[in-house]
Amino acid sequence: MPTFYAQTMPGIEDIAWLEIKSQLARVKFGEKLFAKDQNGLVLFEYGGETADLLNLRTAEDVFVLAHMDKKITKGWDDLYSLTKKLIRSKAFVKAIDTLLDFHRTQSQGIELSYRVISRLHGRFEYRRIDLARSVEKAMKAKYPKWKKVDDHSRVEIWVNALGSRLVIGLRISDRTMRHRFKKKEQKRASLRPSVAAAMVHLTDPQPEDIFLDPMCGSGTLLMERRLTNDYGRLLGGDIEPRRLLSAQANIRGQRRETPRDIDFFHLDVRQLPFQSGAISKIATNLPFGKQIGTKAEVARLYPAIFQEIERVLQPGGKAVILSSEFELVKTAVRFCPNLTILTGYSIAVLGQWGRIYIARKD
To answer: Domain span at residue 134?
Structure first.
């Protein structure tokens, strides 16, 4: 089976693999790689339809693996040997063929053009442009009739030097995978769709879910939950009326049937207007740092939030919560005897590290 990889936001790799193995048949885990503060990579073998990879929601992009070196020197010899390896490589040709076959099924006619995108993570003797040129030399030797372009190429070759590891992939997806929500109202610090997808996946979505985001902002989590699978009811709330209007506008602007069973509430997360045990799933991005005020104000807010989450969740219900206030979360949960943190995933959001917590009501 050919090898592919999903490129994720930093820290989402484990969650992406959970989605991959649940959504795809004939798949086998390979390994995880990490580019500090930029991306994670999840490598896997896959024997199904290439087009199905575009349905993954926790990925920012998907690639077919074209070449890998597990030990590079970070010196100039890397570039000389890389060009020779790619010229001789059958795996590189096979990856090109896999991508072209995919394009033939998606559109008529194929313009034989390419561009190389290179990234360095660590200290190297050479520059990104030098790494790219070594691949361009191989392409010129193997595919002399192909045209090298600066943008809008048929084939994008991504060259990642990750410390002592070199990974080359051919991009299957396009920008619509990571920018799939065209929001009419965009708010500062909104979640990326792939992060929202990771959080929704961790709630274990079920068709009967009563799903709540009590601090919904521009509505990204609600938009993602709506498209994941069927649900019983979606509830969005926020203390700022303008944010509620933004969320409503964004959901109504989604390309799908008219939104059903979605209700919005002007609310204070410390006093949720729902009966005890009324909610089966909660996912939300909690405020942190300077988003709402001083550390003392945030410290007072967290215990009240978690007490309300504990109250409104039904027994066995799950809450998936993103926050960078690690100690405040742990302290708040200690005062909720029926709420248990099952696990967590550290991720980077907007240049700051936070953690996705999964809590269950006992």
So the answer is: 3-171
Task: Give CA 351 to chain center in angstroms.
Answer: 15
Rounded Cα gap, residues 339 and 333, in angstroms? 7
Quote the pLDDT of residue 55: 95
Give the pLDDT of residue 338. 97
CA-to-CA dists, residue 28 to 2, 67, 241, 265, angstroms: 10, 18, 47, 44
The pLDDT, as a whole number, for residue 257 is 60
**Any idea what DSSP says for residue 147?**
E
Asked whether the beta carbons of 312 and 278 are under 8 A apart, the reply is: yes
Low-confidence ranges of the chain (pLDDT < 50): none
Mark whether 69 and 204 lie in a shared domain. Answer: no
Close Cβ partners of 223 (under 8 Å, ≥ 6 residues apart) = 181, 193, 196, 250, 251, 254
Beta partners for residue 340, in sequence order? 360
Candidates 233, 191, 186, 193; CA nearest to 210 is 233
Query: What does pTM read for this prediction?
Result: 0.92
Q: Same domain for 65 and 204?
A: no
165 in the same domain as 47? yes
pLDDT for res 103: 86
Distance in angstroms (rounded) separating the CA atoms of residues 265 and 215: 10
327: domain CATH number is: 3.40.50.150
Radius of gyration of the chain (CA): 23
Please tell me whether residues 108 and 160 are part of one structural domain: yes
Q: Which of 139, 171, 203 is the last residue of a domain?
A: 171
Q: Are residues 223 and 324 in the same domain?
A: yes
Residues 111 and 144 in one domain: yes
| Distance of alpha carbon 191 from alpha carbon 220, whole angstroms | 6
**pLDDT tens-place string over residues 139-166:** 999 999 999 999 888 899 999 999 999 9
